[in-house]
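Glutamate carboxypeptidase, pasting as requested.
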Amino acid sequence: MPTEYTPLITTVRVAPHRQRYPHNVFRRFCTIAISSTLIYFFAAYLVLLFAEPIHIPDHISWSGHGRSKVSYDELRQIILDTPSREKAREWSKYYTSGAHLAGKNYSQAAWTRDKWEEFGVKSDIVAYDVYINYPKDHRLALLEKKGEDEASSSWKVAFEASLVEDVLDKDPTSGLKESIPTFHGYSASGNVTGPLVYVNYGTFQDFEDLRKANISLGGKMAIARYGGIFRGLKVKRAQELGMLGVIIYTDPGDDGELTEEKGVKPYPDGPARQASSVQRGSVQFLSFAPGDPTTPGYPSKPGVPRAPVDAAIPSIPSIPISYLDALPILKALNGHGPKAKDFNQYWTRNTGLKYKGIEYNIGPTPDDVVVNLYNEQEYTTTPLWNVIGVINGTIPDEVIIVGNHRDAWIAGGAGDPNSGSAVINEVIRSFGEALKLGWKPLRTVVFASWDGEEYGLIGSTEWVEEYLPWLDKANVAYVNIDVGASGRHFKASAAPLLNEIIYAATGAVKSPNQTTAGQSVLDVWGGKISTMGSGSDFTAFQDFAGIPSIDIGFNPYPEDAVYHYHSNYDSFAWMEKFGDPEFVCHQTIAQILGLITAHLVDVPVIPFSAKAYTDALDRYVEQVEDKLDSALSPHANELDISSLSEEDITSIRGSHRLTSQLSTNQTHNHDHDDGTPSAASFKKALRSLHHKISHLSKKAKSLDTQAKALAEAINHIDELPWWKFPKIIRLIFAIRSVNTKYKLLERSFLYSEGLDGRPWFKHVVFAPGLWTGYAGAVFPGLVESIDASDWANALRWVDIIGVCVERAGRGI
Ligand SMILES: *[C@@H]1O[C@H](CO)[C@@H](O)[C@H](O)[C@H]1NC(C)=O
Ligand SMILES: *[C@@H]1O[C@H](CO)[C@@H](O)[C@H](O)[C@H]1NC(C)=O
Ligand SMILES: *[C@@H]1O[C@H](CO)[C@@H](O)[C@H](O)[C@H]1NC(C)=O
Ligand SMILES: *[C@@H]1O[C@H](CO)[C@@H](O)[C@H](O)[C@H]1NC(C)=O
Ligand SMILES: *[C@@H]1O[C@H](CO)[C@@H](O)[C@H](O)[C@H]1NC(C)=O
Ligand SMILES: *[C@@H]1O[C@H](CO)[C@@H](O)[C@H](O)[C@H]1NC(C)=O
Ligand SMILES: [Zn+2]
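Structure tokens follow.
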């Protein structure tokens, strides 16, 4: 228990210091009197609070501190002034100087820990034993049968893919001896040979289109282009349809205007894609469960039981290739089967290799033209290392977590993830400066450098699984930064509770866009915040633990240089020449991340907006209603995609509505004889959900109003005479109560059974789309039931959501 606990009265620092009391000695006496009373109350309160045992990480405690010597305004100034371009550049240079694949670079974890300690933040390495693969050998070749008859014919190698990225004189990283081979994380080993089929982006609907056209898929090899959905889901669907293996290439058509076809020079001389660049990446079935696939739902500690992995990772081999390697393979399809243009508009968009003679035929190739894919992966259970830094706060059970992953697919990783690593270092250095000046945070801050993100968000997922009971009680918010800078376009996704905090921070930081001097990041960005999907370390916090999360970063504008994602050319040299030459985006995003953190940590009343959440819930129900109407419309497939955003296209193509089920059951307006509900009764249920949400919305509004009043009152607390200390105590308890309501609001939306077929995902509002992976789906259980025309289950989900909404209402 804290002995020198100075309670929330430390928050007087938010008000500018004013010398209004002439009797300083008397005033100090009063402060001491109030403080001791509060210590008594709080000690009693905390004893109650922690009476039940909670598993708290060893390195974190609730010990109190003295009064902070740094006001909130001073803290903000430190956070704006400290991050430097030179330092960010220095950290970037360090992290990108050698390989740091998950579980392969302990010294980089130790270096990170030591740096954070040097900045003044107590840090430890937290290890897990996880099941992952490392590449051993691979081969991809196009084989053709030559000769007249069976007896004299033999297979000839028509093309042998290089499977390496070119070594460029102007990019030293590309020539590193320890550079990492091109491979897929969690890819299966195997040696498969078969005729080839082009499957477009490999989305669920692409495969449906192929089935509808009677293209034979079983026993064939797939070639898919990157884009749209998470790559593992391309492999998953191919596997389900009996395909042998999957080749995934990067089509320059998806790079927009900056392509060689349009006369733009490729990297390293220009901003277009280097033709030999390869996107490595994980093919885990991310939307089914992230983390170590052998320990779903519990931490991968040494010696724990291990589950079978069949449902979580592919059983067929896959390999990523460059478009240079893809050309001869795609060319082999020319003249075989229908063409992309015989299909719908989703097949003809961004076909960027026509000028190289590729006709984008679907295939399959005839039996005497086959592809051989040989993949040898070493699977092992091996330690990986998170670095966890902690600054103890004054309030024991209100914790803010800020994280970035450190592992990369390549020796470089200047964008992904080490622009984020450089940035988080600058943020920690900034808070370290504040600590040196005597700053005492109100809430505890935990900084995390995750390992194993790339394979499947492993380091963060295992850590959340281990500390779930504590996080459930204490974690107020999680803030993620993955790719901090790969272009100049600010991007954010967040739980709606946190939207206002992002607006406040981005409104206070100058935009790095040189043409708009004086404008804030918010002015230039415009304020669109996406819903939480998956694809980075916020997933376990948001979707499993119900902790409201934020993910921010600078991404490329269409006119920014092509970002060589997961390729050797995501290097320091690329960053310095094209990505963020002055490291100004690094500096800007460090300021934003720092301000968001400071806001969450040091403002007495947790700055959430419950109303923003209920407004969003209402909108999401409307989206479901729209979806329902368009599913019932006979023109559902006649959208003009040129008017759709990339996100909309992804969500349409990643929906798992089976084409054959369309227009069968949906149009009935009466419940079926067997009791199956109809679309009409389902619509009625949605209306009642609106009703529940509007009830919650009223309570949310009054909570926000109360919070505002309390924030105002605490700002003026030092205007109260000492003999009003009972009022002060009441105020502090009121703040405590509001803060607890805000803290736990997001948890109301957890459903312990989880989503259908993917029980790890507990959140009823947010999850990655089942067949998109990255993109966020809202009300996933409900939407997936509609996709499957399973109205009974859709009704069940409306009920589950309704129960959560009511629970949230009772909680606030
Ligand atoms: C580990 O990372 C550091 C810093 O990036 C690098 O210098 C070193 O070569 C890496 N070690 C290995 C074994 O790859
Ligand atoms: C893989 O299969 C091909 C074709 O069947 C065969 O020629 C090759 O030797 C096999 N490679 C390995 C490493 O087993
Ligand atoms: C696919 O096969 C079915 C049944 O064999 C046939 O009715 C249908 O017309 C075929 N579709 C196409 C596009 O060839
Ligand atoms: C937090 O406080 C506890 C108990 O006083 C101490 O053991 C721990 O080292 C502190 N942690 C940090 C990161 O300061
Ligand atoms: C800079 O801002 C202007 C005005 O908002 C915008 O049109 C332009 O695309 C931005 N350019 C860059 C490189 O950020
Ligand atoms: C369509 O309705 C029938 C009978 O009501 C039911 O058995 C079948 O599962 C439904 N199909 C779908 C796709 O929901
Ligand atoms: Zn990343």
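Note for the archive: Residues 502 and 617 are 19 Å apart (CA to CA).
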